[in-house]
Specification:
heterodimer, A: alpha/beta, 6-stranded mixed sheet, 4-stranded antiparallel sheet, 11 helices, 10 strands, about 40% helix, B: alpha/beta, about 15% helix
């Protein structure tokens, strides 16, 4: 059962992927994200995190990146979304035929790239709904689309919150301030459902979630699966992949993809450990 | 009335070799070109029903060079009175405080309540010096909202000296955008038990503007509560100064007094000077002070940008949220919105 608004239903609220996505729809049928021979250093070149990293994610597919601690999984998510401090020394990242690395973080967001943070940030003094309406309308404006009115936004926010079992009071509080770890992760999914990104990167979204929260989060993510949307799920453990079944599973080790497999491969990894493949 | 030439007046001004003025060198900031050094200015008072005003003599409450000069140049002290038990509807508005010396005395009688809105703003190159004395009688309440928004070449000193009797309440909220030099000083003398005081403020400075928010609180009675939170935002080559002192006397047992100053430096060419002080002679009190100076959190900025909010908008949202905390407790919605609108306009 689909518990969340489908993309088609988003039209009711005046949201759609719009001209931007229509223009790029033909490209979606091919590769959505192409990472080619990527090398990344941090600390002004003192440490190399990724080296010769290659990955292709077509539209409509969910790929999982697994790997041991310190393998560079979070670095990958930050490089894709444009965080400062990660220097690309070689290679390219193409997103919908555009050079992703040339874009500012907010331009990547407008292009439909969304990162569910491993550690969502607290923003004191900024109410959750104010933050989200500002973000949504900034994206709509940048795409040349009509902004959502306050009543329409509220209607949509309340609907999504109800499905995620988020209490209305939480939406009035400053974003993530005083939230538990699980609530913060749920709030990430709430943002994801509201913003309806075209490509989602989830960085260890399962950490800190109890089993019920994990199911709610997974339902939310599965509701967004569509032929037009790509996803990259970064995780340590196989359990999230029981709920969000990926098309492919990759092991990141030594700065590159060491081995890839299908959804069942995650279970093999769980049994064998990473050492077998990372060596 | 005193008669002096401008250069002689300037020679009496406080300067950086005086401890209380070491970061706010008034003498060096004023020139003879500043208008208002040797003349009085008549405040424009919009009196609500029940509040009276008459010209009179200055009361002997304030000390210091600047209040003394104000009293010397101003021919009269404007005496404003709120009679016993009157809960005044609507604010007492005070403006036209630029280009000279002004002297006022406000007495809020027993059980009465008054809201003041002070606007300190005026034309270019003005020197302004206000001496405000306030007496809060037993059980009275005063809310003072101060907005200071001068041109970048104006110099202003505004000193408020407030004497509070037992169980009186002071709520003070200041918003300053600086000038060539602005000093907003509040001296509170808590003379009885159970006094509650909130002394919050914010300054937002750009260019080469300078604001000094100085507070001095003397607590002589028991069971008093004092809250002071000042937020500063500085950019370009501006300079923010905060000086706060709580002097808790031996009889002031069960005092609960907290002071905070937090400043955001939006560029690395700014300057913030802070001196939070506690001087405590009572042994059963809860007193604290804190001071932070920092920049916007880059991690939070990235989070906001990742959601599609442009960098400039992200910065202004975070800055507004930071400043707005100083006005959280202001329970007059219109006043609060008015202050926040000015903050938003500055950030735009």
């Amino acid at each position: 059962m689909q518990a969340f608004p489908k993309l088609s239903e988003a039209w009711e609220f005046g949201i759609n992927l719009g001209k931007h996505d229509e223009t790029l729809q033909s490209k979606d049928e091919a590769l959505m994200l192409k990472i080619n021979n990527l090398s990344v250093v941090v600390n002004n070149g003192e440490a190399t995190i990724l080296s010769g990293f290659n990955l292709d994610v077509p539209a409509g597919e969910v790929h999982a990146i697994m790997g041991p601690n310190g393998a560079g999984k979070s670095t990958l998510s930050y490089v894709l979304t444009g965080r400062d401090g990660y220097d690309v020394t070689e290679g390219s990242v193409t997103y919908r035929d555009e050079n992703l690395l040339d874009m500012e973080p907010e331009e990547r967001a407008v292009a439909g790239l969304f990162l569910s943070f491993q550690y969502p940030l607290e923003i004191p003094g900024v109410p959750t709904l104010t933050f989200l309406r500002t973000a949504l309308n900034a994206q709509l404006r940048a795409r040349g689309q009509e902004e959502l009115s306050a009543p329409d936004f509220m209607k949509r926010a309340r609907s999504v919150a109800k499905e995620l079992r988020i209490k209305p009071d939480m939406l009035k509080r400053p974003l993530n301030v005083g939230f538990s770890g699980g609530e913060k992760k749920r709030m990430e999914i709430f943002q994801m459902l509201l913003l309806e990104p075209a490509f989602i990167v989830m960085d260890e979204t399962d950490s800190g979630l109890d089993i019920d929260a994990l199911r709610v989060v997974a339902d939310g993510v599965n509701a967004l699966r569509s032929p037009e949307r790509g996803m990259l799920i970064i995780t340590h453990y196989q359990r999230l992949l029981d709920y969000i079944v990926p098309n492919k599973v990759h092991v990141l080790a030594g700065g590159k993809i060491a081995v890839s497999g299908d959804a069942d491969f995650a279970r093999t990894l769980e049994a064998d450990g990473y050492d077998t493949y990372a060596a | 009335m005193i008669h002096m030439q401008p250069d002689a007046v300037i020679s009496h001004f406080p300067h950086k070799r005086m401890e209380a003025w070491k970061w706010t060198d008034l003498r060096m900031s004023v020139s003879e070109e500043h208008m208002g050094l040797t003349r009085a200015v008549t405040p424009r008072l919009t009196l609500p029903d029940g509040v009276s005003c008459s010209p009179g003599n200055r009361h002997h409450g304030s000390s210091g060079v600047m209040p003394t000069l104000a009293a010397g140049f101003a021919p009269v002290c404007w005496n404003i009175r709120v009679p016993t038990g009157l809960n005044v509807q609507g604010p007492l508005r005070i403006d036209n405080l630029s280009g000279g010396h002004a002297c006022m005395f406000i007495r809020v009688d027993k059980g009465a309540s008054l809201d003041i809105e002070e606007y300190h703003q005026g034309p270019d190159r003005r020197f302004s010096n206000m001496d405000l004395q306030v007496h809060l009688a037993e059980g009275s309440r005063l809310r003072r909202v101060v907005v200071q928004n001068d041109p970048g070449n104006a110099v202003r000193v505004a000193t408020a000296c407030i004497a509070a009797e037992k169980h009186s309440i002071l709520e003070q909220y200041m918003l300053s955008f600086g000038g060539a030099l602005s000093r907003l000083e509040t001296r509170l003398y808590s003379e009885g038990e159970g006094i509650e005081a909130t002394m919050n403020g914010a300054y937002l400075l750009d260019g080469r503007r300078h604001t000094d928010m100085t507070g001095h609180v003397e607590i002589a009675g028991s069971h008093c509560t004092v809250r002071q939170s000042v937020k500063g935002v500085v950019t370009d080559k501006s300079r923010g100064v905060f000086q706060g002192k709580f002097h808790v006397k031996q009889a002031a047992q069960h005092t609960d007094a907290r002071m905070r100053h937090d400043a955001l430096m939006l560029s690395d060419t700014t300057e913030v000077r802070a001196r939070p002080e506690l001087e405590i002679y009572a042994d059963d009190v809860a007193c604290a002070h804190g001071n932070t100076i920092g920049a916007l959190d880059e991690n939070v900025l990235f989070y906001m940008r990742q959601r599609g909010i442009p960098q400039a908008r992200s910065r202004s949202m975070l800055t507004e949220a930071f400043v707005a905390e100083a006005f959280d407790d202001l329970d007059d919605a219109a006043s609060k919105q008015s202050l926040l609108t000015r903050v938003q306009e500055w950030l735009a």
